[in-house]
Batch of 3 targets.
Target 1
Amino acid sequence: MIDPCLIAPSDDLLAGVDWDMTVTEASAWATPADCNVDSDWHPAAVPGTAAGALADAGLFSLDAPVPLHDRDVWYLAHVEVPGPGAYRLIAPGLATVCEAWFDGQPVLISDSMYARHEIRLDLDGPGDLMLCFRALAPHLERKGPRARWRTQLAGHPGLRLMRTTLLGHMPGWCPDVHAVGPWRGLHLVAETAVRIEDLRIEATLGEDGTGRLRVALRLPGETGDTPSLNCAGWDAPLDKGDNGLWSADMLLPGIEAWWPHTHGTPHLHALTLRTALGEIALGRTGFRRIEVDPGADGNGFALRINGERVFCRGAVWTNADILRLPSSRESYRPWLERARDAHMNMLRIGGTMAPEAPAFHQLCDELGILVWQDLPFANFDYPAKDPDFIATVGDETRDHLRATQSSPSLAVVCGGSEMYQQAAMLGLPESRWRGPLTEEILPAAVKEIRPDVAYVPNSPHGGAMPFSPDAGIAHYYGVGAYLRPLEDARRADVRFAAECLAFSNTPDGDPQSMPGGNAPGHDPAWKNGVPRDRGVGWDFEDVRDHYVEALYDVSPANLRHGDPQSWLDHGRAAVAEVMEATFAEWRRPGSNCAGALVWTFQDLAPGAGWGVVAHDGRPKSAWYGLKRAFRPVAVSVTDEGTNGLAIHVVNETAENRTLRLDLACLRDGRLAVATGESDLVLAPREARTLSATDLIGAFFDVTYAFRFGPPSHDCAHVRLSDGNGTSLDEAFHFPLGRSKTARGAMLSVAMDRDDDGTDVLVLETDRVAQSVCVDDDAFEAQDSWFHLAPGQAKRVRLVRRPGSDATARPSGLVRALNSDAVAYSAA
């Protein structure tokens, strides 16, 4: 088995080949002999999809996607080969029911989007390679073992029998863009070009800091000296076993370990094979140790990386582009860098999505982002007793894990999403939903290829019910879809939320440029971009509006009717506030929570979707809130009632941090009526909770819990600084509620530049300005939707947006919920 990642472009005879694509009625052509060369053929990118090719031709739109599951899609390429001989056709992924011919001769049949195929071809010379992706609709009607339960998630129950992504088949969740085509590409290599087969790489880290590297491979036709392996300056000869495999087992004392970027450096080490034929790069790997810590009561789920407990935070990944399902480093990089920049250290690929290509995992390796990989199973009762199904999914799992076997970022592999929950919520007993697929078949495949990762049978699972948040892994929507108060985040005792906090997140910018134009919230085009669950009378915009009313004591309906801009801004501010408040609960030292991933990372289409990042890559208010909540060195506050205001300080880094806390209780948002400070040193990985009273030195009703007389202040502001006085983080508490913040904040905005030439906004206010946002078409603010305290200027860097006019200068508005907008413009 050849690893496509190790095929040199010069050896790949399909590299740079031009492809064409056409769409026909289902079964219109049986074989290439029936093809009509005068049909409408369009250039097509491979790897890619039919939807992407049609979109490039102006024939497909996310606004009104053309159904493809009821059509046949044909791909054609003319392939030049050096001459007669043996070749290998490698297909890492064909979506979904595919037949292939070379010069009219059948060479391949596939019925799984996730299956990897490697076919030997004996070719006489150049020829035409044709692929037909058959209509999925007829296959959805075929009968199989009776399901023990049905799901409302997908549009057709027959999808449980097909190995294809649910993307495009979930009404209310994503556009109806059907995955069709050679989404993972194709490769053709001559047998004489093959250098490495059956590659196995396993890198682990011992408790004493010694790395262990095991490598096994096959070298067809290798002659000459014994090959050797080099890693991190260490060399080891390979031994050839009776099975024909060359192998090496290396110990690397004191190797630099791989860490998630929030906790250290994601060190990677190049692997080089030295042979008589020259040096061959095997990629890079990292050395780390992953353990699951269930906690003292055995009900928890925490990851320990290299012995250190890591609070995992991030989001659920959807896809870089649902039209094209791209798989290149260039397509992934801006999204993953966006996650890294928000201090996210984990992304989950859910079972409703599609596994990503090796390039995704390689970038996560480099950026220090852990990956939670759900295998592609979700909500359905799959036919786990069907031997063909068992063989197919076992092969799929092993192939995917082999392709990512050197990736240290892969931390958790999960048997799928919400199968246990779906059945349990229908009242079925555990014996009906817990079974061999997730308890035996999939974990056996994972253990064979990646014994170094944590395996989870399903997400969620654990506790009295699989969806109980106080044990194991939860999908927590108490705060969110279930409209619980913010305090529920603590009351639920969440141990690990593999998904949480789903809201309809409105993008920043001019409403006129959004779906619905001048009527946000009213126009049907606007509502098309708002996610919803099937069969319910509400959507996730209603969820967001509930928290607008709860936090600000205003009527969202009245705002939407009378002041749409204020309605949008209150919604954006509310989401950022909920994110920060919830993670303040979960990251405090006294919490049992060991991680939480927000649903979802990015939108799949324009609109107010679940994504904390818009479909075009622009951050939303939720992203900014999470960026602040996820800082490795951070401060947060929680209202402990008559116990006062708790101040939580976290240092996740590997260094001692000398820090200073300053507290000011402000009347009318500006007059300090009580102050306090504290100097402290936090050890590496230390978190500490202090009381506001500790800083003030005497009793002061910071939370206004005792209510002895009228309130003395309406805001408590905490600033965390380093030893040089540089502000690192801030936290705000509004003891009377956010709606009681003093109005009429006077914002001032000036322009400056940092030493590296970056444009900077310098913001000041005469009193607390609530939920300040920076709105600039050409430049992106590095912080937004934050509270601004008086007494110290805040510097906000502006970075040019990709694709903006290179001659444009910063120009926009700064506004706050309790202040008039202020315009700025750079000279």
Target 2
Amino acid sequence: MCNLTPMMQQYMEFKEKYRDSILFFRLGDFYEMFYDDAELASRELELTLTGRPCGKDVRAPMCGVPIHASAGYIAKLISKGYKVAICEQMEDVAEAKGLVRREVIRVITPGTVIETEMLDDKKNNYLMAIKKDKRSFGLAYVDVSTGEFLATMIDGENVESRLVDEVDKVNPSEIIIFLEEKDEEVYKRLSKMLNSFISYIDEEKVDLNVIRDITIDDKVKENHVSEVAVAALVSYLSGTQKITLPHIDVAKWYTRDHYLVLDCAARKNLELTETIRDGGKRGSLIWTLDRTQTSMGARKLRKWIERPLVDIMRISKRLDAVGNLKDNFIIRNEIMESLQKVYDIERLATKLAIGNVNCRDLISLKMSLKNLPFIKEQLEKLDCNLLRDINSGIDTLTDVVDIIESAIVEDPPITIKEGGIIKSGYDRRVDELRKATKEGKQWIAEFEAREKERTGIKNLKVGFNKVFGYYIEVTRSYYNMVPDTYIRKQTLANCERYITNDLKRIENMILGAQDKVIVLEYDLFVKVKENIASSVMRMKKVADNVATLDVLCALAEVAERMNYVKPNISDDGVLKIKEGRHPVVEKVMDDNSFVPNDTYLDTEDSRLAIITGPNMAGKSTYMRQVALIVLMAQMGSFVSASEANIGIADKIFTRVGASDNLALGQSTFMVEMHEVADIVKNATRHSLIILDEIGRGTSTYDGLSIAWAVVEHIADKSKIGARTLFATHYHELTELEDKINGVKNYCISVEKNGDDIVFLRKIVRGGADESYGVYVAKLSGVPDCIINRAQDILKNLEKEEMKRIQKKLKIPVIDGQIDMFSMNNSSETKLDREIVGEIKTMDVTTLTPLDALNLLYKLQQKVNEG
């Protein structure tokens, strides 16, 4: 470093402290980057890479961005998962003696972004810290842009799996992990599975004293591992943001059992906030339900979807509010129209709290708050507990509105240091300075006229030069008329030049008035900002209530448009849905052609439904719609049915679809088995389980055996006994209805018309006898030559299967018919007359694999019974 220039030595000192960040080093009107940072930034931002002499025989790679356009470049780097350290000039270059003093004023990371242009206004941006203990994990996470701060602890059985589920649900942009724990396998799994930036913190640098000035829920303090996670989060924020964050809420404690538990697979398979196909919003549940008018409401709706409730009273309050708004169409419309004019009060309050607000933000805040009195007037007309609570929680903040109204112009410029932001009449000094700027010449002319009249000096004139400024010039013939208040400044051959206190006052107002007014306006803006910043916590409370109202209005709007009904919520375990519909599929179809279906499950005689039927007939859609209806009801939404009783579920599990996980080296079947294992380990009798085609990723008999055993285990009340929908192509499982109490068979009805088949998409009692796989292939457009060949192969396989059964049980066959005489006289098979009578007319050559396997099963049972 000794060969470097002083400035580059300064740069290298900062870079050493912020090695994990791209250092934006302020040089005049640019942020410059050097060496590796420059090469990385030039590649990621498509900037021209140049060089800069930085010492004796030393030239550094360099690139830069203009300060006025830096936000876009920083946003791009953050979106790619980089950190950016902002190194600012802390003194005026013109006034600096020697090297300009610089400091890193902030480190921007994926989890600490507050800039609107870098954020999705409909999603929270969480920063999470995780601390591992022997048998538990402490979690703390915060959204710096809104101030929301939460903490919990994950412990008990399957703790690592539960941690992954919780982190996946929060979906943080950045995760802070203790350096000493970075090699833990669960963190490696998280880094492969999530699109989260991983940061590390040294445990020795985390002092619990950093949280002594923060309000923390007592439950957090009772769980040391969570308290350490909170301390790590606060330490990280202090080290990166370099300022206090007064808007951060109380660190609130919650537990997973406060909400309906949804694991990673359930959130993915049910497509709650994004689709499996392309990760987009269209086609997801939130796309169906989102009629919110504000960004705050959109974020809250996402939380409600991801965290449905389990408390019947809280659910019922939401449902009552949705119903009240649904029934009052005019009032709802008036409220929603007003909400359209409400900006993001929550994030505006944050910007205000940390001093990052501009005048346009204040105008947006004012315009938002001015809608609150009307919204409250409308709420007064409604009769509902939750809506009354919301109304009482909405403070109109008229004092804040009045301050902004009186001080800030209606259409201010973007910048706050170029003037033009303070209203006329707010401050006398500003008004005078502006008048001096605009009317300076007129003032001088008026002053000159007044002095002529006052003194009687007819040729008196006011002039100006750069040495003396403004002056009064009087010719020699009028010297005797010069007032005593004139102060002689200069004597010339034919005249004298004077100044007066009034002239100097006018001069001071005119000269540099523009610069003075800019400084004064900024000072006044700062005072206004500081004045209303004291109301930040009031604003946050208002924002929360407005967001809740927005969600309730949106759900009421959807309920009316889509003909949803209010569900009855109970704890009796009965799930009864009449004419249920898949909310997303129904909306996509948009032609009233969706076929509704009934559902009945309980915790006793009908707790597990085995659903058989062909592919493409609607089994998966049906099962997903049941799960979504339960979820919608427990989040407080009306549901897509004509009638619904929802027995509260504590958890929803799904195993739907086939997918591998190449990142973790898992095949489709391995993923399937992992998900099944998680379900049977974590489900309770109060859970809802959706299982589709268990065992299809392996051989037929392996798969059938696994599926059979899973059904037995789930149906067993001493083990789980959960309400379950189990779709399968293993028709052999329909035998379980007669063997296991609580198991019932259902199938998708099919209508045959010659060689054509129509899937009626209706769920009916009973089991299906065919899968129609070849026909489905035909419908999908597979060429006829393949279809015809597949049908031939299928017949041959069925014959071979029957021959194998014959050989195994030594069933005598003559010309394709079972030889009943030989069977009746066979002591080896030990078949009784009941079975013989059942199969005596059967044509063995036409048996399907299902018929054959069922026959094999019955014959084996009789042999075993002996």
Target 3
Amino acid sequence: QEPEKIGTMIDPVPERSVQMLHDHQYVGAFAYISVPGRQPLTFFSPHLSVGGNVKYFRSTLAGYDADAFAYDLGLLFRTPRFHLNTGLFDYLIISLGASATNFGNAVTFINEATPLPQTSRAGIAANLGSHHGFQLGADLDYRKIRDEDGYLTFGSEISWRQLVSLRMGYSWEDNLLGHFVFGGSLRFDDFILSNNLIGRNNALRLELASNQNNDLLDSPYHGTITHQPIGPEAFRLFEPAYDKYVESDSVILKWELTRDPDLYDDVDHWIIVDKDSSKLANIVVLSQQNNSDVLVQVRDLPLFVNQATNQTHLSLENLEVGDYFWSVLAYDKDFHFRFAKLDNQRIAKFHVTAPDPRVIAIHFDHSEWITTDDYQGILQFTVCNLGDQLAKNLTLSIFDSLSIQGSVNKRALIYQQPLSDLAPGDTILFQTEWRTPFNGLHDIVAKIHDSKNQDQIENQNSSAFYTIPKGKFSTTDTSIIQQHYQVIYDLPYVGKIFFESNSAEVREEYFRFWTIEPPLALFAKRLRENPSIRIYLQGTIDPNSDEQDITLANSRANAVMETLHELGVNLDQMEILEGEKLPLRKVPQNPEDRRWVYEERRRVDITTDKVSEELLFKPLQTIYIEKTDSSVVFDSDIIGVVPLKSGKIYLSADNLADSLALSKFSDGSSLTAPVNWLLPQKEANGLSSWLDKKGSYGLTLTDSLDRKFKVKQQATNLASEVIGRERRYYVLANFALASAYYEFYWTNLLNTIPYLLENPDTRISFQGHGCAVGPEAINMALSKQRSQYFHDKFLADVRQRYPELYDRVKQRVDLPRGTGETEPLEFRNESGKQVILGENEKPLGRQLNRR
């Protein structure tokens, strides 16, 4: 059928047997039996084959029988496929063949021997084509039959995908009535017709041919129906033999490669191996489906071996004990599948049996303590003999290596232990400390080897473990959790009571309501405490305010005296002086400034003798302590490898306890930045509840592997500290002047000099202020004059009073500064509220701003 196919050169039918009898005008019947054989000479060349045929021929003629044996021999060479890449034809194949047929004894009837028609034949064929395109074949043969002239025959065929073929042939044999023959064929394969009709991996071919007609005979027709396989040819699995017991952990699988009858098709091989036979059985079922996706499904299956191959063997090593199932699947471009067979089984089986000592588990029990040493925890190794034989003379060796950027550095031996004989199924647990100074991911390799030859590895297992965090976490022996800044205000008082125009009524702010203690209430208290003090009250009137009657000035003095008397001051401690009518004065053009000047001229002046002046008018001291909560600062230098997921600092003192959650870590895996923890103020006294207590603290960390670590508990004393003190000493100044209103204020300031020098950090500065009466520029200049005046006076008085301290004091005095009217007198009360005393809208406030 296909003379170009290797091994099919020899036709099993005795060539021209019928024609031979016809030529000799014999009349009778004949029969023959043919036993063909063909063999590719792959040991010599994959492109060379030889064929042979043995035929037995028997004939009956006119009651006489004759028989003979005939022998055929042929040789065929086929070139490899040449790639053309012409777009129409992909491949070119050339075949060369020669044969000698019908050698043997002559056929003898009675006495006459008729020689067999020995025939010599040689030819060449060319095939061009593509598997899914057009195919073109042409061949030229020369034949020489015994006692006849030789002749040539030519044949050609063109096909499309082997589905539709057209054929033409011509023979130069002289005794033919017609030299031309024409024909064609249709082929239906399993992808066109139902599998049930023609069978999986098969095709049905219908052929029809017609010889050339002539003047004597009509055209004879020839028709054939051929049912043929079209998938890969059958092939075999060689070894190991089916159900063989392999006493080793390695085996070599061997099989033969198969071919496809289509010259233009290719066959690929796929080997599958697994311990689960059901997986391979499912693949066999899948291969029987007429679906190109079968191979895709097979490739995705999780098998021990699942890979394409063009080899005829595969070496499997380090096999576990047990049953293994394997097969080789061949498939062509049309996804026709065929499994290799061993003992008529598609799935072969072998059993691995041997002593199989294995490290079946490696476990790392990490240390929970964060320390600075190299201790990481305990490594545990479970060794079991999974084989069917006794394991003996073995040693367990443990190696440690640090993985760095995908590579592994040199392994270090960290533990070694001889193993006692292990019977099949025996299990032993070993453990050892793991110490390493190198942080990172470590490969822990456990090897079981012959005790005398460490390089003879029987089995090994490995696991990768991350080191634990290492470092320190601590704070100082004393932790400052609160800082105090103290400000002492010496708030000044002045003996002046101001009135509304043409009024002698004392306003409530002087005896009942004021930002701080009302002046008359404070004076009354001090007069009661010091009955020897005598004061003088003198009222004034202001002609600029249209006040002319002097009795108004006396009425104002009487009103102040009555108020003080009501506050408990004895009348004999008070004396009213004759009222004073102030002279007219030039007033500012600004209406507001003019009004403020008038207000300060309508007053009662309270005076006393110099000895009593300080007792009566001394400042009211107010102390404000600003408390700033401070963090407990923990120094941390903990280096980790695995990202940290969470952390917590805990602190307890007496019956108090609290914790601080950590969520941010240096580079995600370390805690190297200081941690500032502001203790909670939910207790009744806030942070004061924690003060002067000894606290115990610790740290816990959890990494992304859910490993938990902690540092050992430590102690710190919780305390407070004073970070600064400030004293604001106010010296009131006279209106529009740079002189002090009360001299004792200045004297008291000089008395504090030795105290000021006790603290080496003390600084002294003079700041001059003014009220809002008049232009801002004048008030700014006046405030600078005041600060400069008192600055110079202070240094001069210190030089005179404390000559030995002068140089030290001078080094601590800053340059004077004037603020004009921009900074009215203000202070913070005990609750921390900012309070303004120097209200420029009120005459008393303006008096306090002149300082």
